[in-house]
Amino acid sequence: MMPxxxxxxxxxxxxxxxxxxxxxxxxxxxxxxxxxxxxxxxxCCLTAQEIFDTLxxxxxxxxIASVYRTLELLSKLGLVRRVDIGxxxxxxxxQPGGEHHHHVVCERCGKVTAFEDQGLxxxxxxxxxxxxYKVGVHEVMLRGACxxxxx
Length: 151
Hints:
This protein is 46% helix and 17% strand. It is an alpha+beta fold and 151 residues long. It is flat. It has a 3-stranded antiparallel beta sheet with strand order 1-3-2. Strands 5-4-6 form a 3-stranded mixed beta sheet, with no helix packed on it. It has helices at residues 7-23, 30-41, 48-57, 64-76, 118-131, 147-150, and strands at residues 46-47, 80-84, 89-93, 102-106, 112-115, 141-144. The longest helix is centred in the N-terminal third of the chain and has 17 residues, at 7-23.
């Protein structure tokens, strides 16, 4: 597996998301700002509960309802991608340049790992051409057993 996107990309996302919120007439302060920063720091997707727990663990007094409302707004504005892992939806930054990664999920323990693979991207492009589609956004999720659960 390859590492996830470079930190500079996520910093660009944070600036982009803050600007887009402002353009849309929304403040990026308080809970929204804390949620943006939390998403920006993580290498992969988080559930609303994980965002809430992270914020509470760092001493922020943000309500779970604020987390859900903010994620809904960020989704509506196209600033986060919703990833349906299984029982709970996860959210991650939607990079303005289209950079992305995919996910592999352990069916036993629920661990989610991000991965990038240029060969996979090339195969998706070839498939799109064969089907006469211009493939834009796409999601690939692999499921199996992680190394810890296989042992």
